[in-house]
From TrEMBL:
Residues 54-174 form the Activator of Hsp90 ATPase homologue 1/2-like C-terminal domain. Gene3D superfamilies: 3.30.530.20. Residues 330-368 are annotated as: Disordered. This is SRPBCC domain-containing protein. It holds the Pfam family AHSA1. Belongs to the AHA1 family.
Length: 368
């Protein structure tokens, strides 16, 4: 075969013609536009009100006097309703609110009073703002309105907290009317623990359910979180162990409507006559953040336990500690890169300005 053969490669090679060079900037591929999310926040507000047949001064005392608050709401520990001070509203079953008072306006300033505070459920949940307002509607009637505001709360926040506030206001009104304590001694559901973690829901869930991670945050001794498996966990040096039986493990993108992952499990302890039901799940909490939550039900089955409240407090403490360790792990995975002063120099392979795109943010909450 010679070069004159039109079927040969040599016949078509002409060194005088420049090699075809297509700049990707002139003809870019699809789906490479560099779009990224910058905000995924939502603000929510709950407003509930009640009229109480009592002067505003009497209602104010019932709200701000620690002894009285302990009769209709929760036991006060620390400086409750003191401007700038922190305190705890303790339900004495392992769960509580950590509070910080940010504004106090007593009835002496007119026919209106106001108490505003921040609180976190069991000290580690997302902070929300609560404002109690009282307005005199005559000498013997007071309108009480409570407003709770949150940014990126749990998906069931409206139903859970929204249904709870009218009951709390009714307890306040009944206590003022009768002087009888109206606090519940303890609840058959819970503990409920929640905490925010850096990272998207899918990557955080994958990290936490991996066996090496479970040894740290969940105090795993043996087992895995695969469906049908068991995990032996250490509740504490002086608290013994428990066995977590995985009934269902729903992975991401597997179930309508949220397609978010979750775990349904049972918990057993030596001495318990039955299994305590548990739910562990995660959901978005704004851009690049997730809300990890756990909830228990079925304490009726443990009613013969000599000290059910002690077991409940122990379990609450375990989950608070576990979620704290989970946050440490998530933070170590999402330490921000050092901020570069000014734009990235040409040729560095990245033309973003510092702070432009969230590092690790990708489509549909996944990270790239």
């Amino acid at each position: 075969m010679t070069v004159d053969d039109p079927t040969s490669a040599a016949a078509w090679r002409d060194t005088s013609i420049p090699v075809l060079d297509i700049d990707s900037a002139d003809f870019p591929p699809l789906h490479r536009n560099g779009a990224f999310p910058i905000v995924q926040d939502r603000w929510e507000r709950l407003v509930s009100t009640v009229r109480i047949a009592a002067p505003v001064e009497r209602v104010w005392a019932a709200l701000t006097d620690p002894e009285q608050v302990g009769q209709w709401f929760a036991v006060c520990r620390g400086a409750w309703a003191v401007d700038g001070a922190e305190s705890i509203l303790d339900f004495e079953d392992g769960e509580f609110f950590l509070c910080r008072t940010v504004e106090v306006r007593t009835p002496e300033s007119g026919g209106r009073a106001e108490l505003r505070h921040l609180w976190r459920w069991v000290g580690v949940g997302p902070a929300t703002s609560v404002t109690w307002s009282m307005t005199a509607c005559g000498p013997e009637v007071t309108a009480v309105t409570v407003i709770e505001e949150a940014v990126n709360p749990p998906s069931d926040w409206r139903s859970w907290n929204g249904m709870g506030w009218p009951g709390i206001l009714d307890q306040l009104a009944d206590f003022i009317r009768t002087g009888v304590p109206w606090r519940w001694p303890w609840r058959r559901m819970g503990p409920y623990v929640q905490t925010e973690l850096p990272g998207s829901t899918f990557e955080v869930w994958a990290m936490l359910t991996a066996v090496p991670a479970m040894q740290f945050w969940l105090s795993r001794a043996t087992g895995s979180l695969a469906e049908g498996q068991t995990v032996d966990i250490i509740l504490g040096d002086a608290s013994g162990v428990a066995t977590l039986q995985v009934h269902r493990h729903i992975e991401a993108n597997q179930q309508f409507p949220s397609y978010l992952p979750r775990l349904e499990f049972g918990l057993r302890r030596p001495g318990w006559p039955a299994e305590l039901s548990g739910h562990l799940w995660i959901e978005p909490a704004g851009l690049g953040r997730s809300l990890l939550q756990v909830f228990h039900t079925g304490w009726e089955a443990l009613s013969v336990v000599a000290a059910p409240l002690a077991e409940r407090r122990l379990l609450t403490g375990f989950w608070v500690g576990a979620f704290g360790r989970a946050e440490q792990m998530a933070q170590s995975q999402h330490r921000p890169p050092p901020v570069v002063p000014g734009p990235v120099t040409a040729g560095a392979g990245d033309d973003r300005m510092p702070g432009d795109a969230p590092f690790g943010a990708g489509p549909h909450g996944w990270s790239r």
